[in-house]
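Dear colleague,

Thank you for sharing your sequence with our group. We've completed the structure prediction you requested, and as agreed, I am returning the results in plain text so they can be pasted directly into your records. Please verify that the sequence below matches your submission; if there's any discrepancy, let me know and we will rerun it promptly.
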Amino acid sequence: MPFDVDIVVLSNLRKELDPSVELVMVDLQGKDPWTLPFAHKEILARRLNDYDLFVYSEDDTLITERNLSAFLEVSAALREDEIAGFMRFEKGEDGETYFPDVHGCFHWDLKSVRSRGSQKFAFFTNEHSACYVLTREQLRRAIDSGGFLVPPHRDGRYLLPESAATDPYTQCGLTKLICISRFDDFLVHHIPNKYVELGLGINGRELRRQLDALIRVSSNGHPPQSLCATQTRLKSPAYSKLYYEPVRQELLSSIPSEAKTLLSVGCEWGATEALLASQGLKVVAVPLDPVISGRAEAAGVEMVYGDFHAAREHLGGRRFDCILFSNIIHLVPDPGSILSLFRDVLSDKGTIILVAPKILPLLLYWRRIRRNGDFWDLAGYENTGVHSTSRRTIRRWFRKAGMKPEMIVESRSPQAGSREGVMRRLTNNILFSEFLAVARRV
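Please find the predicted structure tokens below.
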């Protein structure tokens, strides 16, 4: 690099390093080993006046000269509470680039797109990239905020190491923005490439499609519109809408064999919808937003954009043999009213399929009593942005919409993963179960 660089390695074990590298020993006796990453903050603070740039990185994430030069160039145009951030990538054995941090409920915030100078920036809701860079003024601002020099802790969304790498954004009043017009300059390689093997994240083609859509919808002169709020107000991402739902056989099996047309309300990246379209169904989708829908649209799924009411108006007098609401209805203020809104686009013998997570009030209150920071003030939807769910709740929603439930069964959510062991299986059954419900018009 053309910069004068000092390297400091934090470790609880003695290491043989190049003489130019400074080793700082961290005493972890009696402490959680994952608290080690927090030790870097005091080092940066003590040396505030010694450097122009301060880089924190986990030991398997590569920061290049290209990254730092781009950071310096775009930072000149950003406001004092905005900070240029990075996104991790991995390389698969197929030579494809993958983005492991683009998964679950994490997505591009349509309303965050902004121009600074000649560049465009946007906020991605997963702020973790295993690294960050701060100018001297940004570091000073972070320290002065009171949220930087704090004891090791877990943010509700992240574990200890991720919290250590995201505190400047989550606790210090700085907004992390990705420069989407110079996206490649802000990519950092997660060298182990281990998440590719686990199937976590999306490939480069899909992400480029999202970036193109993000720039397009932010430049057409009309405010981009999302279907609804997709994340709860809980500190944990639990029960928020997943943007990358896999295809599930139990859902496919619930679609009547005689159905020719299907409406999907709350479509995310659309793996299920694309599969159904390839099998000959006429599939129309009301997507979460115009950015996530590109994959399904490219597969022949017709898109109807807008919030629930705008989408219903666009549908006019069309009729569908089946309507799918997958993991979206528990996030709206009045689920029964939304179901009722789409009742008239269901054919006379049509079927509604509803998927919703199983959210037990007793479980949530137990967590509240234990002061678990992931769940707070669970007195109702107004405080949490999510409804508790049960068979009785779902029946009530259907009755309000003038529909008769025919089947409500429990199934395992994709979030349960492949955990093993008795306690883990028990946790999965409690936290990662969902209801699959089928109803017809009365």
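Summary note from our side: The chain has two domains: 7-217, 249-441.

Kind regards,
the structure core
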